[in-house]
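Severity: low
Component: inverse-folding endpoint
Summary: output formatting inconsistent between runs
Steps to reproduce: submit the following C-alpha cells with default settings.
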C-alpha cells in the first residue's frame, strides 16, 4: 500500500482471494481467505481518500465484493453487487476505484456471490475523520475491529444446495468473534490488549448470515459514539443488540483490575441460545477471566427500547465542519411513500421470499449495464411492484425488481414485517434517517410518532416480527442502488430490489461515466460503448 499526496490521497491494496481451511467452531470448513487472512484485512482510510483495491480471484468460481455502507457518490459502478457489476471470473482480477467521499465511521466489506459470505471474504473498513474536523471524544489509545457473526459448519457449497432446493438455512451451528471462539481453558490468546487507565475504540460489525447478536464486555460498560457513519449521543450500555449488517463504534475504558476479561456475543431471538467468547487482556495483568459470564437480555421489547435510545449527535461534526444537526430533515416534504412488505411463499413447491408479491432473480446482465447500454427492456421492467403491497398475494412472480426514482426527491420507505422472524434491511448508496420502528401495521397517522429531530442517519435497520420501520431518504445520488435483506437466505431467495436514479441531463456532475476498465457480461458484452455523459 502507498499514498500519492496529490489532491485527495490515494490508498492502494492488492488482495488475493483463495480457499483455505478455517475452523471457528472447531470443525474444519473450506473458507475464503484474503491474503491468507480470515477475517480479511482491515481497510484503514480517512474521509475523501481514494481507495484502490485490486482483487485477484483465485477461487474456482466467480467472486464479487461489496463495500457495505460506502455511498460511492455518483459512482454505483464500484458498488460491487450483481445488479451493477459483473462478477470477477476465476483466475482473473478486477480493480475497484472508489472514494470515501464525505463519510466517517465503521463499515465492512463482504462477498455477494453465491453463498461465499458464509465462509469468509469479509472484513472491516474504517473511515477516520480528517485532522481538521473535531471528533466529539478524546483520541483513543488504539482502534480495534471486531467482526461477529453466526456460523454454519456445512460450508458454502452445501448451504447453496439447501437454498436451491427450496429450503431455508435453518439455525446456525454457533457464533464467532473475529473467526474465533475462546475455549476458556487458560490457553486462549487475546483478541486485543489494553493498558490500564486508557480508553480504546472498538468497531463492532455483525457480518453474519441471519442472526441478531447481543455483544458485551465482561465488567466494562460501552460508550456508544458512532453508528454507521453518524456520531451519536454518547450513552453507556452494558450490552448492545447488533443486527445483521449493522456496525457500532464504542469506547471502552480499561479501569478495572488488570487481568483477562471476556467479550461475549450471543444469539438473540432464537429458540436455542448460542454464545461465543473472546479474551481481552490487560497489559501486565494477572489472572484469567471470571467464570461469571454476563447474560444477554431477553425478548424483543428490550431491543426495541434500546433502538429508541439511539440519537443523532446534533452538535458534532461528521465528515464536514458543519454540525450534523444543521441538516433539518424533519422539515422536508415527502414526495413519495413506498411500502415494502416481505413474505415467504412457495413457487413450484420451493421456498421463495418476495417483496410486494415479486421475488427478485439475478439476471445474467447487471441491471445498471443494461440500462447504460440502452437495452434495459431486454433485461427488466421498471416499477414492476406497486408502491403499496397488494392486500392479497395470489401468485408470486420471479423477476428483477427495479423502481424508477426521481433525482433530488425526498421519499419515505416503510418496511412491513408481518412474519414471525426479524428482518434487517440495507440501502446501498445512501444514509437514511431511521425515524421509527414500531409494533403493528403502519398507517399515515403513525407519522405523528416519527423522530423528526435527531434520528440517527445510517444504512441498515432492523424490523421486528409483526412490526414496521420507517426511513426517510434524500435521493441525491444518481446510480442503480440495491435495497436488500441482510438475512442472507432471504436475500438469496428473492428479498431484494434496486432503485434507479438517472441523471436528468446525462451529466457527469450527477453521475460518473462507465469506467474504462469495467467488466462487461451478458447481452452487453461486445457491444460498442455508449457516448459519454457531458461535463
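Observed output (run 2 of 3):
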Amino acid at each position: 500500500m502507498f499514498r500519492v499526496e496529490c489532491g485527495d490521497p490515494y490508498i492502494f491494496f492488492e488482495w488475493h482471494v483463495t480457499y483455505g481451511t478455517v475452523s471457528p467452531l472447531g470443525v474444519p470448513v473450506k473458507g475464503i481467505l484474503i491474503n491468507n487472512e480470515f477475517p480479511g484485512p482491515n481497510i484503514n482510510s480517512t474521509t475523501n481518500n481514494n481507495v484502490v483495491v485490486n482483487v485477484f480471484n483465485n477461487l474456482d468460481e466467480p467472486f464479487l465484493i461489496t463495500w457495505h455502507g460506502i455511498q460511492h457518490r455518483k459512482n454505483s459502478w464500484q458498488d460491487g453487487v450483481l445488479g451493477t457489476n459483473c462478477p470477477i471470473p476465476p483466475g482473473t482480477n478486477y480493480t475497484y476505484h472508489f472514494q470515501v467521499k464525505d463519510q466517517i465511521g465503521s463499515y465492512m466489506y463482504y462477498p455477494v456471490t453465491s453463498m461465499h459470505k458464509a465462509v469468509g471474504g469479509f472484513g472491516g473498513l474504517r473511515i477516520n475523520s480528517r485532522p481538521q474536523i473535531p471528533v466529539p471524544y478524546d483520541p483513543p489509545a488504539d482502534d480495534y475491529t471486531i467482526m461477529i457473526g453466526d456460523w454454519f459448519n456445512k460450508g458454502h457449497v452445501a448451504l447453496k444446495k439447501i437454498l436451491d432446493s427450496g429450503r431455508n438455512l435453518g439455525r446456525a451451528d454457533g457464533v464467532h468473534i473475529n473467526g474465533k471462539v475462546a475455549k476458556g481453558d487458560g490457553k486462549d490468546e487475546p483478541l486485543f490488549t489494553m493498558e490500564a487507565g486508557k480508553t480504546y475504540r472498538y468497531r463492532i460489525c455483525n457480518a453474519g448470515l441471519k442472526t441478531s447478536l447481543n455483544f458485551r464486555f465482561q465488567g466494562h460498560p460501552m460508550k456508544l459514539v458512532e453508528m454507521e457513519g453518524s456520531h451519536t449521543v454518547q450513552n453507556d450500555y452494558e450490552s448492545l443488540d447488533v443486527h445483521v449488517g449493522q456496525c457500532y463504534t464504542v469506547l471502552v475504558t480499561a479501569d478495572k483490575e488488570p487481568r483477562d476479561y471476556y467479550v461475549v456475543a450471543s444469539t438473540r431471538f432464537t429458540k436455542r441460545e448460542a454464545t461465543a467468547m473472546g479474551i481481552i487482556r490487560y497489559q501486565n495483568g494477572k489472572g484469567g477471566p471470571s467464570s461469571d459470564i454476563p447474560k444477554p437480555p431477553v425478548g424483543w421489547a428490550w431491543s426495541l427500547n434500546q433502538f429508541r435510545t439511539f440519537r443523532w449527535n446534533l452538535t458534532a461534526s461528521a465528515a464536514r465542519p458543519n454540525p450534523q444537526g444543521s441538516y433539518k430533515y424533519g422539515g422536508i416534504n415527502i414526495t413519495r411513500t413506498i411500502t415494502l412488505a416481505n413474505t415467504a411463499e412457495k413457487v413450484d413447491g420451493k421456498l421463495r421470499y418476495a417483496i410486494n408479491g415479486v421475488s427478485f432473480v439475478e439476471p445474467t446482465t447487471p441491471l445498471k449495464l443494461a440500462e447504460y447500454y440502452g437495452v434495459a427492456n431486454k433485461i427488466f421492467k421498471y416499477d414492476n411492484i406497486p408502491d403499496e403491497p397488494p392486500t392479497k398475494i395470489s401468485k408470486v412472480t420471479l423477476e428483477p425488481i427495479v423502481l424508477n426514482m426521481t433525482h433530488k426527491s425526498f421519499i419515505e420507505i416503510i418496511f412491513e414485517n408481518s412474519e414471525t422472524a426479524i428482518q434487517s434491511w440495507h440501502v446501498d448508496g445512501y444514509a437514511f434517517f431511521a425515524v421509527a420502528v414500531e409494533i403493528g401495521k403502519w398507517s399515515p397517522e403513525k407519522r405523528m410518532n416519527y423522530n423528526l429531530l435527531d434520528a440517527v442517519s445510517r444504512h441498515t435497520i432492523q424490523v421486528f416480527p409483526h412490526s414496521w420501520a420507517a426511513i426517510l431518504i434524500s435521493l441525491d445520488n444518481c446510480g442503480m442502488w440495491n435495497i436488500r435483506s441482510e438475512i442472507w437466505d432471504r436475500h438469496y431467495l428473492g428479498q431484494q430490489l434496486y432503485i434507479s436514479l438517472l441523471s436528468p441531463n446525462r451529466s457527469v456532475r450527477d453521475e460518473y461515466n462507465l469506467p474504462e476498465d469495467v467488466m462487461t457480461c451478458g447481452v452487453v458484452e461486445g457491444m460498442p460503448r455508449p457516448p459519454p455523459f457531458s461535463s
